């Protein structure tokens, strides 16, 4: 069966539990194993230590939707929409998780390890294109411990990786594996590919979304986000957003509620409409903000005549010498620049290529 891309969906699915029992034909137990023979291996001690030091920073995130029978319904009901995982980011009560875990929710409930109390949280900010969201609990629990944050730039294929999450609603489950590959480009839910994804064979299932991927030193290296699977459950091919991306995005979400990104001050025609205008290369500029650097340079967007027919203006071809043929291309190229930085662009106007410099603005 052909494998399909699936988000590690946060819906909690029903499970069948099988009772284990001893029959009269069961084999007889052997003599007890000596303490010396049952001593833990160093690798096991490392895994146990990491779990103990990290588990209090991992939470269950419940997404609840408010259902009303009609406009005048004065007694709406709360409907559980699903659940995922998150992790404590700082001492101020911020929780990081996947955007798809909180999408469509009206209320969010956080459950901490070994704590039966439910803590309500609110969404502080989201970045769908990176599948990242930040929540903040309204009240801090007695045991509130941020996860130790590492780096993903120096990771190696083959090194140990651990995942803690809530697969199928089984809270604070630990799975272990390795980093299988680095720098994967995986289609996200925000309309663009997420670059730099970490591939791991840690068992990741529905409910693991938003949970931490941790290295052998106990530090965060990624956030478990999606899997490749034909069945919907783990096939040993999971993907995590790298922690370097999380470290870049989360501070903006906490401070501004959104990510401040560099841009040109233009809106682009959706990729699937370019064919109507016989545009095979480049990006059709749909609208130009007159107060932006692009507007001051005189770039032209689309126009419409009295009969409602649309005409294209300029077509963006290159950014700093690199071709841009999709929204994904330009989005991920701009990730490498900063607001206020000058770049070169090449665009097509009246069948002529024009090159110029432009200063990136905040969008």
Structure characterization notes:
The protein has helices spanning 42-54, 99-102, 243-256, 293-297, 327-334; strands spanning 4-7, 58-67, 77-88, 94-97, 107-111, 118-127, 132-137, 160-165, 173-187, 193-200, 212-214, 220-229, 238-242, 262-263, 266-268, 283-288, 303-304, 310-311, 315-319, 322-323, 342-349, 352-359, 361-362. The chain is mainly beta and 363 residues long. It folds into three domains: 4-8 and 152-256, Trypsin-like serine proteases (Thrombin, subunit H); 56-137, Thrombin, subunit H; 262-362, Pdz3 Domain (Roll). The chain is globular, with a radius of gyration of 25 Å. Residues 11-26 have low confidence and may be disordered.
Keywords:
single chain, 363 residues, mainly beta, Thrombin, subunit H, Pdz3 Domain, 3 domains, 6-stranded antiparallel barrel, 6-stranded antiparallel β-barrel, 5 helices, globular
Profile the largest sheet.
6 strands, antiparallel, barrel
Q: Number of domains in the coordinates?
A: 3
Say what the CATH topology of the largest domain is: Thrombin, subunit H
Low-confidence stretches: 11-26
Distance between the ends: 43 Å
The CATH C-level name of the largest domain is Mainly Beta
Q: Trace the largest sheet across and list its strands.
A: 8-9-10-13-12-11
Binned, the helix content reads 10-25%
Order of helices and strands: EHEEEHEEEEEEEEEHEEEHEEEEHEEE
Strand content: 35-45%
Average pLDDT score = 88
**Alpha-carbon Rg, integer:** 25 Å
Second rung of CATH, namely the architecture of the largest domain:
Beta Barrel
* Secondary structure: number of strands: 23
Q: Overall 3D geometry? A: globular
- Number of helices in the DSSP assignment: 5
According to CATH, the homologous superfamily of the largest domain is Trypsin-like serine proteases
